[in-house]
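Write out a record, focusing on structure:
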Amino acid sequence: MKQVFYSIVAIALSVFSISSDVQALEEGLYWSGGSRYIRIAKQASPTGDKDRDRVCYQGFSPNGSMIVSLKLVIPRYQTGIDYEVYSLQEPKKGNSVDLSIQQYAYSPDKIAFGKLVGRFVKGGLVYKRDAKSAIDTTPELQKCLKSTQPYFKQILSGRDRR
């Protein structure tokens, strides 16, 4: 009987996550503790195709900030429609660097940030959405969103410059 209940719950979760309004990677500011934050920002595609939306990442730490465009590497239709994975893009070669972001559609208040191992992000940190934060963006993040090429910029904090 327990197995039947779990199957019904799994089917219900799948049905709710199939809605096209559910975004597996949502805009916002996410916090992992201390002074480490991630901001996810999106720019809608001019064609209206959600798969072609521009997605950018800005990571903040005591060492500074990094702004990078994200590339969809595992689309939702390949995962059972419950998550998708984005990787940070390497600007020179157009390839993804070794860090990825994963967010489950049923848990949009958390993202996992770490290495892509198989089809999942592992060995990193889990960031929780800061519900009180505004969706404002920095000028560098705006440049990333408006760019049509892979984007990368690193800003070191004053104490780390030599």
About this structure: The chain has one domain: 23-160. The first strand starts at residue 28 and ends at 33.
